[in-house]
Amino acid sequence: MKRLVAKIAYDGSEFNGFARQRTHGIMSVSERIEIALKSMGIEDEIIGAGRTDKGVHSSGQIISFCVPVNREVEKIKTLLNQKLYPHILVKSIRETHNSFHPRFDAKKRGYRYIFSNDFKNPFISKYVSKEIYGDRDRIKEGLKVFLGRHNFAYFKKQGSDTKNDVREIFIARFYRHTILSISYNVIYLEAEGFLRAQVRLMIGAVLAYSRGEITFQDLNLQLKCKKRVFTHPVSPNGLYLAKIIY
């Protein structure tokens, strides 16, 4: 057997998250890929670099799986893209060493959040979140609070069990980007890793600050785990797992 590593993109609105879920009726991304592989005579469990929740998309998820040594890599890519169309795309695929692990070998992960408070195109509503925001300079100011190494225990989904809630944020950037001739807001966050719902809670808090609903002090108090001020994550449909760095 040989191990392959692939970069994939997927439409999260069609799946119940990336990883296999206990909920029946809605397939996960990994299940869909495993079914496609099985139809090609390849039976192995998909390993991903990150677990995205229901409704969250990806433009740069990394997965790995094993195939018989005699299988041609490019042919596997071609067949997978035929079987996974139109909701999953294998962007690249190559052979890697057998000890490679997409999750544990990753050094950094990047997420992109696309949002607007005004919609002019209903056909992209699953991919751009409608979020009311205020002053854009306050968005930039709020994002800077998260840079560095912090305990994000108050910026994770309550009930999620983690041994260590400390994460380092390397990039927290806000900019405008044009999609189909319409300009949208984008927040890009890059860190060594994220807790469950951390990105959506961080962005939700920053947007609340931009609207004047919470203060700059509130942001700092929550980051220092002294006071839980904001608990409403933004919608998942504008969120993308954009990049995995090794």
Describe, in plain words, how this protein is organized in 3D.
The structure is a single chain. The chain has 246 residues and is of the alpha+beta class. The chain has two domains: 2-96, Alpha-Beta Plaits, CATH 3.30.70; 108-245, Pseudouridine synthase I, catalytic domain, C-terminal subdomain (Alpha-Beta Plaits, 2-Layer Sandwich), CATH 3.30.70.660. It has five helices and ten strands, in the order βαββαβββαβββααβ. It has helices at residues 29-39, 73-84, 136-144, 198-210, 216-223, and strands at residues 2-10, 47-48, 57-67, 88-96, 108-116, 129-130, 148-151, 166-179, 182-191, 239-245. Strands 1, 2, 3, 4, 5, 6, 7, 8, 9 and 10 form a ten-stranded mixed β-sheet that branches. Strand 2 and strand 3 form a beta hairpin. It is globular and about 60 Å long. It starts with a strand and ends with a strand.
Query: How helical, in percent, are the residues?
Result: 10-25%
Provide the number of structural domains.
2
**Overall body shape:** globular
Q: Give the strand tally.
A: 10
- Structure class: alpha+beta
Average pLDDT works out at 95
CATH superfamily membership of the largest domain: Pseudouridine synthase I, catalytic domain, C-terminal subdomain
Give the N-terminus to C-terminus distance in angstroms.
23 Å
Instruction: Report the C-alpha radius of gyration, rounded.
Output: 19 Å
The CATH first-level class of the largest domain comes to Alpha Beta
Poorly predicted runs of 5 or more residues = none
Order of helices and strands: EHEEHEEEHEEEHHE
Here the CATH topology of the largest domain equals Alpha-Beta Plaits
The CATH architecture of the largest domain can be named as 2-Layer Sandwich
Report the total helices.
Answer: 5
Hey, roughly how much beta strand do the residues contain?
A: 25-35%
Q: Major sheet, described briefly?
A: 10 strands, mixed
